[in-house]
User: Fold this.
Amino acid sequence: MILVIHQQSSSEERAHLLNLLQQVTSNQRPVNLTIIDEHEVIALDESQLDARKCIELTQHPAIERTVQVTTPYKLVSTAFKAGRSRIHVGDASRRVTIGGEDSSPVVIAGPCAVESRDQLLTTAQAVKAAGAQLLRGGAFKPRTSPYQFQGLGVEGLHLLAEARELTGLPVITEVMEPDMVETVAQYADVLQIGSRNMQNFPLLLAAGRSRLQRPVMLKRGISATIEEWLLAAEYIVAAGNPNVILCERGIRSFDQHTRNLLDLTCVPLLQELTHLPVIVDPSHATGRRELVPTMSRASIAAGAAGLILEVHPDPTSALCDGRQSITPEQLQAIVQEIQLLTQVLARKMPLPSVA
Ligand code: PEP
Ligand code: MN
Assistant:
């Protein structure tokens, strides 16, 4: 059940409601309100609550209406909010919108890892020239082996901020620990929560409660079901941050020819289940640069709100994920194809004539 709080409720009514919510949830979790479409809302699982208290809550004068949602994830569900959410990224001078009913797909591009000032600034300028709207780059890298390059850390964040000043592109970068959320949010326009951390619940809560409320791009866990993924998104939204973008980046499979198995079915499926935008990462999904252009087109044709692509000026010398990194020239070709494809997809098809 979702409770929508009356915008005109008095402060006494609100205080009373919050007190009641605290009792109802038996102080099991902090009572957080989330603002969605200018309304304060809170979701509860009725099966966990005392029936009489539930009635008391639904009839409370501070409650405008209640919405019944039967799925385990609630605030992210289309049963609560129909239509597609629009997530605004970047400050007013460089705003990019991801999602929504009719916005064009957004291309996020940049190196897997921030390696040096020269590498990042060169790539950032090339990414901008190729027509991408956001710059990516990992400062903190979750590497499988402890002996691999782990990223430049806070120095990488400084370089990303410099690249944003230089190009005007908002930046997205990964945060791996709850205690680093505020620091990363000071530099980044979007927080990336990586596949390996999709169920790092303290991290999800920290990104949800963060003071700066940066949009969060939540990548699908390496073997996560759709429901687990949506519940992970629900953690962030229920903690107070409604601005979540889902990113399909391939799931673990048995075949060794590609790094992962790109689950494109999830793109239209998620549009039935959630109002959150869904973007696709063909770089991590395939692990092979030669497959990235085709799977980029396929992702947009399937309805993705955007792409995140790894780009390196010299992929063979990349410190991380070079095999799947494309060149700036290849990025430019993909951006142009996506623009054409978007026009084709928007074109109304004539109805076949009935014989
Ligand atoms: C990345 O984007 O570089 C990354 C580490 O992605 P994932 O979490 O999907 O593996
Ligand atoms: Mn990578």
